[in-house]
Amino acid sequence: MAKMEAGSTLKRLQNRYRLVIMNDDTYEEVVTFRLSRMSVYIAFSTLFVLLVGLTVALVVFTPLKYYIPGYGSASIGREYRQLKYVTDSLEKQIHFQTQYINDVKKVLSGDANQNLDTTQLQLPQEEFSND
User: Fold this and answer.
1) Which 3 state secondary structure label does DSSP give 21?
2) Which among 6, 24, 33, 71 could bridge 19 via Cys, Cβ 3.0 to 4.6 Å?
3) What is the pLDDT of residues 36-50, one digit of tens each?
4) Distance in angstroms (rounded) separating the CA atoms of residues 44 and 109
5) Do residues 16 and 61 both lie within one domain?
6) What is the pTM of this model?
7) What are the TM regions of this chain, as residue ranges (predicted)?
C-alpha cells in the first residue's frame, strides 16, 4: 500500500474544482462556483460554529434556559422548598382539624367509646423539712 505524503494531501485539498448549476430545460449555466476541498471544509466548519454559537446564545440569553432541567436560579429552588414546607404543614393542620371534627361528631351523637386512662400516676413524694 502506498503511503500518502503530507504534501500530496495538502495539494489535493488545494485543487480547484468548478461547480456549475444549469437550467435543466435550456442547459443554460445559471451559476458557476470555483471551489477547492479546503474552502468547502472551511465553509462547513464556519457554518457549524455559527449555528452552535447562535443556539447557545438563544438558550443563554432568552427564557428558554428555564426549560433545561436543573438550570433554575437558586431563589426559585428556595421558594419551592418553602412552599413545600407550608403545604405539608397545612395538610397536617387539615388532618388534625378533620380528626377533631369527627371526634366531636361522635361525642355529640353518643357513639363515642370512652377509653378511660386507668394507669396510675407515680407522683414524687415531696419532702418537707421542719426547721
Assistant:
1) strand
2) 33
3) 999 999 999 999 999
4) 84
5) yes
6) 0.48
7) 40-61
